[in-house]
UniProtKB/TrEMBL annotation:
Segments passing through the bilayer: none
A Pfam family of this chain: RhoGAP
Residues of the Rho-GAP domain: 1-99
Keywords, in A-Z order: GTPase activation
Coiled-coil annotated spans: none
Name the UniProt record assigns to this protein: Rho-GAP domain-containing protein
CDD domains: RhoGAP
Lineage: Eukaryota, Metazoa, Spiralia, Lophotrochozoa, Platyhelminthes
Species name: Schistocephalus solidus
GO molecular function, one term: GTPase activator activity
InterPro entries noted in UniProt: Rho_GTPase_activation_prot, RhoGAP, RhoGAP_dom
GO BP of this protein: regulation of small GTPase mediated signal transduction; signal transduction
Amino acid sequence: MADAYDSAEPSPILKPGVHDAHSAAGLLKLYLRELPEPVIPFQFYDRLKATGYRIDDGQDLQPVISILETLPAPNYTLLQFLCQFLFEVTHWTNAFYSR
């Protein structure tokens, strides 16, 4: 499956009925592991930790946003995509379990 992804085959890599959510998650994890640097590069960790932000504290997000906006463009774009993707996964998961 990873070879098919790497070769950029025009047909879908994940075929409904053949692959499941675990296959998609495994492919995403493999992609993230093989990145040359983390989505949030190491040089940003200390600044992010210094904000002391915790989601459940309800604090202002601006200090965190300011740091994230200084990420290199490819990292910022990937982080945006991942956040949107995970938001959609959560939405559909909640919709599935609320039936």
